Amino acid sequence: MAVTDSGLPVQKKPKRGRTKGTDEGGREDGIRQQNVALILKAATSLFSRKGYEGTRIAEVADIAGLPKANVYYYFSSKEEIYDAVIKQLLDGWDAAFKAITPDADPRQALERYVRSKLEHARKHSEESRVFAGEIIGGARFLRWRDRHHMRQVTQTYSAVVEGWIAAGKMKPVDPRHLFIMLWAATQFYGDFPILACDALGRSRLSRADFDAAAKVICATVLDSLIPSDAETGVLDSPESR
Amino acid sequence: MAVTDSGLPVQKKPKRGRTKGTDEGGREDGIRQQNVALILKAATSLFSRKGYEGTRIAEVADIAGLPKANVYYYFSSKEEIYDAVIKQLLDGWDAAFKAITPDADPRQALERYVRSKLEHARKHSEESRVFAGEIIGGARFLRWRDRHHMRQVTQTYSAVVEGWIAAGKMKPVDPRHLFIMLWAATQFYGDFPILACDALGRSRLSRADFDAAAKVICATVLDSLIPSDAETGVLDSPESR
DNA sequence: GTCTATAGACAGATAGAC
DNA sequence: GTCTATCTGTCTATAGAC
């Protein structure tokens, strides 16, 4: 259901479009899939830059190369498109956590997590920004079950970190604040590329910039939590080797 | 130093020495100040939740307790209100950096920076979110002068950190990525309070949560960069600071 | 499936009486 | 300074011809 807010032009929730079997015919579904993908791509770009209300369906249609009415043929409302974009992001998000298991080496697992998150931020910057805007705005459209899922993921992996700490593999730290810090530090490059570019003096972030970010994050946060073999130099110090 | 003069015609608050037609010694100006403040407060809340396009001037007026036309009496357009909100934030932002001077002790200076940023995020969460939304959307309204100022601030204080490193007071690290990390980690609690609440299992963030955040950030990032006297325990060690 | 034309609603901004 | 009434433009969503 739509979160009813005073300013939202909530209108009717019409029936879903005709549902064709997805595995039935190849040709019609091919067109459908292609057009849906075009619409979602255009919508992601626009939602990320202009937010929900700032995005015009006419412009989505324009960028997708379709007439506006066709967009309404595939999606019954603007909100349905927005939900689809958010869902697209969440579907591909949990992957970064998969390295974090009780039996894993904390240092390797967390470094992989950081690198996965950064890689995701680099490749899916626009989706990240749609999500960030949604959270900033108070999660007005985020479905409850998605939010609940994120809560549970945090709890699950915090417990893993606590296990590592109890086993003496890591120095004690509140794992929830740790995940927040890692999340914030990695997500920043996807959510606020403009600030990152300005800070780094770039016009665009390169792969090397993301790599440097990973190095700094790991060399500071992880080195202080997980005593490694040689902990003398932090970064690029010549005498540490 | 605050970012100065972005050319806002209305909404200036200095007392003028000479009152022309309206005498009575600033009673009218008192009303003006008060109403402008009410409008900005309402606008900040709405812009933070609904973004630029999602915010309705009618609702701003409603929350401010004024008729809509009065809002247009004090501000000539919606964008002018938005600019004023952004400016309000930037004016109060550089203060956090003031502890970072070449002669300062790096550990103390950076810890103060982290705590100042967190305190600002706690007290000005809504303004932070307006700014975050503006950046996420591509800085469409942010004046170039303000952006340039932020770039210069980053450069200035990065140079200070580089001086510390050259003087052997800190382990080598790219100061720009360091500032990004500190910025991201602190700003997160103001920009994404919903995620922070979900992660921490709170309904609202308390002062203690911000304090715990400061401790984790300092205990991880700063401890690994600035060798302190006793670096055995990371957190919850009886003798810290 | 595709697309034109438009209904219906509502926003930002203004005119002008008080 | 305050506020009602309204103008003007634009948006979502739909009807209905191809």
Number of strands of chain A: 0
| Helix and strand run of chain A | HHHHHHHHHH
Q: Of all protein chain pairs, which has the greatest interface, and how many residues does each chain bring to it?
A: A-B, 64 and 63 residues
Query: What's the shape of chain A?
Result: elongated
What does the radius of gyration of chain A come to? 21 Å
Beginning-to-end CA distance, first to last residue of chain A: 59 Å
Largest sheet of chain A: none
**Which quaternary structure do these chains form?**
homodimer
Which class do the helix and strand fractions of chain A yield? mainly alpha
The DSSP helix count of chain A reads 10
Report the sheet-strand fraction of chain A. under 5%
- Helix content range of the residues of chain A, please? 55-70%
Low-confidence stretches of chain A are 1-26, 230-241
Overall mean pLDDT of chain A: 85
Explain how this protein is built.
The first copy, chain A, has 241 residues and is mainly α. The first copy, chain A, is 64% helix and 0% strand. In chain A, helix 1 (27-54) crosses helix 6 and helix 5 (106-123) runs parallel beside helix 8. The termini of chain A are far apart. Residues 1-26 and 230-241 of chain A have low confidence and may be disordered. Chains A and B meet through helix 1, helix 6, helix 7, helix 8 and helix 9 of A and helix 1, helix 6, helix 7, helix 8 and helix 9 of B. The first copy, chain A, binds a DNA duplex (18 and 18 nucleotides) through residues 9, 11-12, 14, 28, 31-32, 56-58, 66-70, 72-73, 76-78.
